[in-house]
């Protein structure tokens, strides 16, 4: 059985000056190291970042923490971070400050 990786960076960014990070399925502590490394790479790229969680079923506390840190670091660098989510995740992310 092939394991689905719930984190990926879209090579063809939808807007110039933006990178897109896509989260799908269940993003849990089991993939936190991959998510953290990917977030660091995207942040170091120097672009604004769009994070799509529209296909994510679940984000645990580690995933939310990484999103919050990504947003903080991008803002410190003068960059924007936009997060789009499904209706199912909106309440959880609002409670976390996203």
Structure description:
This protein is of the alpha/beta class and 98 residues long. It is built from three helices and four strands. It has a four-stranded mixed β-sheet with strand order 1-2-3-4. Strand 2, helix 1 and strand 3 form a beta-alpha-beta unit. The mean pLDDT is 87.
Strand content: 25-35%
Radius of gyration based on Cα positions: 13 Å
The strands making up the biggest β-sheet line up spatially as 1-2-3-4
Uncertain segments:
none
The arrangement of helices and strands along the chain is EEHEHEH
Q: Give the end-to-end Cα distance, rounded to a whole number of Å.
A: 34 Å
Shape: globular
Mean pLDDT: 87
Q: What's the count of strands?
A: 4
The secondary structure category is: alpha/beta
Major sheet description = 4 strands, mixed
Number of helices: 3
Helix percent reads 25-40%
Features:
alpha/beta, four-stranded mixed sheet, 3 helices, 4 strands
Quick description:
This protein has helices spanning 32-44, 61-76, 87-95, and strands at residues 7-10, 18-27, 48-59, 81-85.
